[in-house]
Specification:
The protein has 277 residues and is of the alpha/beta class. The protein has a single domain, classed as Alpha-Beta Barrel (TIM Barrel). Helices cover 38% and strands 16% of the residues. It is built from nine helices and twelve strands. It has helices spanning 14-23, 46-58, 79-96, 116-130, 155-163, 177-182, 191-201, 235-244, 261-274, and strands spanning 4-7, 28-32, 65-67, 103-106, 109-110, 138-142, 150-151, 171-176, 207-212, 214-215, 226-227, 253-255. Helix 1 runs parallel beside helix 2 (46-58). The longest helix is centred in the N-terminal third of the chain and has 18 residues, at 79-96. The N and C termini lie close together (8 Å). The structure holds fe (iii) ion (2 copies) and zinc ion. One fe (iii) ion (FE) binds at residues 67, 107, 142.
Length: 277
């Protein structure tokens, strides 16, 4: 099964997102749990979720991926900023249980001068306070481009976080194709080599999702600017290899390209043509 979708606006609720997804030929989608800048979350609407579930079931949807607000910093220096990250993530994870057995992706954080080591320890501490044996949601660490002082710019950094988390059976990784290429992993020319390295350092069984993006910047730029598929430095050939790679093809792919709905529909249609099943 080719699980392909994109990031959708959550403002009209789950059923609306599921309908939008079907409308653009998608069978998975990603959404922000709240305003990406970290505002209050809306109340859970069980009727809306039931309706969404119905649509998802009818259309054989795969994994739904929630994305944490990108402004929260799980390794912030200031206690109040760290507290905010904890409060938002705990609330998000509680709410995720209304749509059980899905995944919650977050940017590990920025150490802003404290150093990577300290950042890693803080992120792991936060996860140790958050994760519970009972939760059905898998929490995904996103591979980062290494912009500024971002933690998670290398597979080793992600592995170090995972190793420090007690309930790390609840943890996985989301590979962002723009970010890893920007971070210095050449998925355009050596996808096999990068996946081998991922497997050696983290283990491919942790890889649960792919953010499928092209990039506006050349290899190892550490900039994190997404581009529409085929228009950036990855190009269609690399994208084709990614969606057809035997180690990746069963994973869900989520577009985060600079598009409106019609643009996403066109990219999804193009990908389906490239996909060999
Ligand atoms: Fe992200
Ligand atoms: Fe991403
Ligand atoms: Zn990005």
């Amino acid at each position: 099964m080719f699980y392909i979708g994109c990031h959708l606006s959550a403002s009209k609720g789950f059923a609306a997102m599921a309908e939008m997804a079907v409308g653009i030929g998608a069978n998975v989608f990603q959404f922000f749990t709240r305003n990406p800048r970290g505002g209050a979350a809306k109340d859970i609407d069980h009727a809306d979720i039931a309706k969404a579930r119905d649509i998802a079931k009818k259309n054989n949807f795969g994994l739904l991926l929630a994305h944490a607000p990108y402004t929260l910093n799980a390794c912030a220096e200031k206690p109040d900023v760290l507290d905010f990250a904890f409060t938002v993530m705990r609330d998000d994870l509680n709410r995720m249980e209304a749509i059980p057995h899905n995944a919650y992706n977050f940017h590990p954080g920025s150490h802003v001068g404290q150093g990577t080591e300290k950042g890693i320890v803080k992120i792991a501490d936060l996860l140790n306070r958050l994760l519970t044996e009972e939760q059905t949601t898998t929490v995904l660490l996103e591979t980062m481009a290494g912009k500024g002082s971002e933690v998670g710019r290398s597979f080793e950094e992600l592995r170090a976080i995972i190793d420090k988390v007690e309930l790390n059976g609840k943890l996985g990784v989301c590979l962002d194709t723009c970010h890893v290429f920007d971070g210095g992993y050449d998925i355009a020319n050596d996808l096999d080599g990068v996946l081998k390295s991922f497997d050696g350092v983290i283990g491919l069984k942790r890889l649960k999702a792919v953010h499928l993006n092209d990039t506006k910047n050349p290899f190892a730029s550490h900039k994190d600017r997404h581009e529409c598929l085929g228009k950036g430095f990855l190009g269609w050939k690399a994208i084709e290899n990614i969606v057809n790679h035997p180690l990746l093809k069963e994973l869900p792919f989520y577009l985060e390209t600079p598009n409106e709905l019609d643009g996403y529909a066109a990219e999804i249609a193009a990908l389906k043509k490239l996909r060999r099943d």
